[in-house]
Design brief:
Residues 19-23 have low confidence and may be disordered. The chain is α/β, with parallel strands linked by helices. Helix 1 (107-124) packs across helix 9 and helix 7 (253-263) runs parallel beside helix 11 (391-405). It folds into 3 domains: 7-90, Sandwich (Immunoglobulin-like), CATH 2.60.40.3110; 97-209, no CATH class; 225-405, Glycogen Phosphorylase B (Rossmann fold). The strands form 5 sheets. The chain has a 6-stranded parallel β-sheet with strand order 16-13-12-17-18-19, sandwiched between helices. It is built from 11 helices and 19 strands. Helices cover 24% and strands 22% of the residues.
Length: 406
């Protein structure tokens, strides 16, 4: 058999991850030519018939190609001196060793994504390790969605020997929204899929992995379910968030919602992490105050035994949904299609300053508390002036939820 004059190495390469955690990275198809015979090589990278990159390199040179999501790659190498052309294929098979990482520590993201990521693992049949935080793993422990083959940050990133750990993997990739990197936002999805803020959060991993979304609710750690700690019928509410734009900004609105729920025969339990007055936002007085740093296992148990949950588009709303509780979601930050679509009543009222999250022309990574891309808001009174959701809208939402789900 006629051979190339120099040594050719074709592989998935993740050595580029040496200088930083690899949350934005995907393993790259890589070709290296080593040897003393001076000649050039035409290198073509293709996937599903699409040309990814084509270049000419000399001996003792290398080339790789950026990928934004896992896909099989065909590589054609032609040696100028001999005219020999050879075909190589990099693909994920049942024998491939893969590392998949959650590029988010947010509870809502994990709940929205885990089913689809696990579906991809099952369909590929690869040997897959999952890089996720201890908190995320604990959410699904002991249930049907328990994350198997978990590796810690120390396992894959700590110490000078980290490159040796990476080398045991054929392929490394992550799942996330990558909002801090405009190029990744535009490219970290398959071309046929829309911008990640124009689809439901559950569709984000499928837009990367190229499979159908699994919209089923995952199973939250069943060992956390105990006997109820609150007597009678009650509703859990959570009124705080991470930016003012995510709040229901009707000043004093929650103070009317609590007695309305009481009139319906429900105790009201406040379960926000934040308590008291947080960034100018007052926690409403409720029958039972369980705000503050309370173990997530206790939150799960309280939500499991409540009649329904009222909150903002946030992680606690996703948690209540995963526990199969009806959710009344209040807020104008994201449009109703952005979150889960079943077992929910959404209180959203379109206006000139609503749907900030879904506007792909703006930077939602601005972390200034009062950031509003449409109009200057200096304090809560400014937000109150542009709030379109009235107290009656929330009352109507409560009545609708009770009528449909209870």
């Amino acid at each position: 058999m006629i051979q190339f004059k120099n040594k050719i190495e074709v592989k998935w390469n993740h050595s580029m991850m040496d200088n930083k955690p690899f949350h934005d990275e995907v393993s790259k198809p890589f070709v290296e030519v080593t040897g003393d015979f001076e000649t050039s090589y035409n290198i073509r990278f293709e996937s599903d018939g699409e040309l990814l990159h084509s270049t000419i390199i000399q001996n003792n040179m290398w080339v790789d190609v950026n990928l934004c999501y896992p896909k099989d790659v065909d590589i054609w190498i032609t040696e100028a001196f001999s005219g020999i052309e050879k075909h190589y294929k990099l693909e994920l098979t049942k024998d491939s060793k893969v590392l998949c990482y959650f590029n988010s520590n947010a509870m809502g993201d994990a709940i929205a994504w885990v089913n689809t990521i696990q579906k991809w693992v099952e369909e590929k049949g690869c040997q897959v390790d999952i890089f996720a935080t201890e908190f995320i793993c604990s959410l699904f422990k002991n249930g049907k969605n328990e994350i198997k083959n978990v590796v810690s940050e120390r396992d894959v990133w700590g110490g000078p020997e980290r490159k040796d750990r990476w080398e045991k993997y054929d392929f490394i990739f992550g799942v996330g929204q990558y909002e801090d990197n405009k190029w990744l936002v535009e490219n970290k999805r398959r071309p046929e899929n829309p911008h990640p803020r124009e689809i439901t959060l559950q569709e984000v991993p499928s837009s990367i992995l190229g499979i159908e979304t699994n919209f089923d609710r995952p199973e939250i750690n069943p060992s956390w379910i105990k006997e109820p700690t609150i007597d009678g019928d009650y509703v859990c509410i959570a009124t705080h968030s991470t930016l003012q734009a995510k709040y229901w900004n009707k000043i004093g609105g929650w103070d009317y919602v609590v007695p309305y729920l009481n009139l319906k025969g429900y105790k009201v339990v406040s379960i926000s992490l934040e308590s008291g007055i947080y960034c100018g936002n007052k926690t409403p007085k409720t029958d039972i105050n369980k705000t503050g740093y309370i173990p997530i296992s206790d939150r799960v148990n309280d939500l499991h035994h409540c009649k329904f949950f009222i909150g903002l588009p946030s992680g606690l709303s996703w948690l209540a949904w995963a526990l199969n509780k009806p959710v009344l979601m209040v807020g104008n930050y994201s449009k109703p299609y952005s979150e889960f679509q079943d077992n929910v009543v959404r209180v959203y009222k379109e206006g000139p300053y609503t749907g900030i999250y879904n506007d792909t022309s703006i930077d939602i990574q601005n972390k200034e508390w009062n950031y509003n891309p449409y109009i200057e808001c200096k304090d809560l009174s400014d937000w109150n002036d542009i709030e379109t959701i009235d107290t009656q809208d929330v009352f109507d939402g409560i009545d609708k939820l009770i009528d449909i789900y209870l």
